[in-house]
Amino acid sequence: MSTPHPHTDLADGGALQEPARGRLADGREILYFFDQPGDGDGFVPPADPRPLPVRPPAAELRRDPLTGEWVSFAAHRQARTHLPPADECPLCPSGHDRPTEIPAVGYDVVVFENRFPSFGPDQRDQVLGDRLGVSHPAHGRCEVIAFGSAHDASFGDLGPERARTVVEAWAQRTAELSTLPGVEQVFAFENRGAQIGVTLHHPHGQIYSYPYIPPRTITQLKQAVTHRERTGRNLMQDVLDFECADGSRIVERTAHFTVFVPFAARMPIEVHIVPHRHVADLAGLTADERDDLAAGYLRLIRAVDALYPTPTPYIAAWFQAPVRHPDAGELRLHLQLTSPRRAQDKLKYLAGSEAAMGAFIGDVTPESTAARLRAALATLDGGAA
Ligand SMILES: [Zn+2]
Q1: Three-state DSSP class for 98?
Q2: What is the DSSP string of 46-74?
Q3: Residue 100 alpha carbon to ligand 1 centre in Å
């Protein structure tokens, strides 16, 4: 890492695990994280024996003049692996007769550059234009994070130790990716369930490094700045105080985080995890906070899994402050977990109002979702007692 991450405040001894680093056959970087950091001592990432084609060129970034939003066109992504059977899974460890994306015979947590990226493979500083018809190479970086060797596990099946390693890897990647040229925001997320477009079953997430600030973050920046101008206070702190004072949507409070369903949740299941301390991103958390977050996040995923007898699809999205925006200091790290599931056999589809207008119509009250999640947690705790 060349320069320190601008948001990182590790004065409390929150130094991040340094992964073991290797390269895949086409030059992509692969990083190994360990549940027990000592396990990485002397570990040499195995060579990748596959004959791989050269990496595709950067996708094309085009600007929508009606909204000012950027769209990445990555035609090569059409060739990517789609729901392969278990014996062709690219995220399983390599066997003797079947090399995969991960050359090791087993692993705890692995991060590697996506073979079919929406952004990258290169990172460059570039000024994005605003003329009609303007386009740019979609620089940036897209990484895959595999949560473990077991093909059939889900995040909720991971033990606390593994969940902690995943949090560690997210934080380390945020710190490092934030220093790359042209990267404006680092976004770690997990899509779970074929219903929301997952193309690989093996438990994994992704980490995008965007060359621009995405629309949701721009909206949040505007709201936070307006709130600061009007009240002199930080918006997320006021949201947290409001939710805690009300209490009806609180799912759980841990030492350092509050888990709640937001007042105006847009999806049938929507849960936020907000740190009590104003911190920009996962890299800025102390080691204690990362411990607490890993445990609380795992409990939330298990509670969501307990709502229905079959797996609930979800998107777990880590909102982090942008890397260099002048108002970035107003934004606080938080998780937004959403699911379109509104009943055992019903999914909410984003139809005309939501998809075309961005205007959400809810049919499940946030208070009832919070009550169901609290009950699920109580059942889990009772079952464990
Ligand atoms: Zn697999």
Answers
A1: coil
A2: PP-----PPPPPP-EEEEETTTTEEEEE-
A3: 9
Query: Residue type at 105?
Result: V
* Rounded mean pLDDT, 281-310: 97
Structure tokens at 270: 């929507």
Which tokens is 203 given?
């438990």
Alpha-carbon gap, residue 344 to 342, rounded angstroms: 7
Residue 303 to residues 309, 336, 340: CA-CA distances in angstroms? 12, 15, 16
195-233 tens-digit pLDDT: 777 778 899 999 999 999 999 999 999 999 999 999 999
Return the active site residues: 204
Give me the pLDDT at residue 270, please: 98
Choices 3.50.50.60, 3.40.50.800, 1.20.1250.20, 3.30.428.10: CATH for 20-212? 3.30.428.10
Q: How high is the pLDDT of residue 86?
A: 78
Region for 63 from its dihedrals, namely left if φ exceeds 0, alpha if ψ lies in -120 to 50, beta otherwise: beta
- Tell me the C-alpha distance between 55 and 121, whole Å: 8
Which residues, other chains included, contact 207 with Cβ-Cβ below 8 Å and sequence gap of 6+?
A: 111, 142, 143, 144, 145, 170, 173, 177, 186, 187, 188, 189
Nearest to 369 by CA among 329, 349, 341: 341
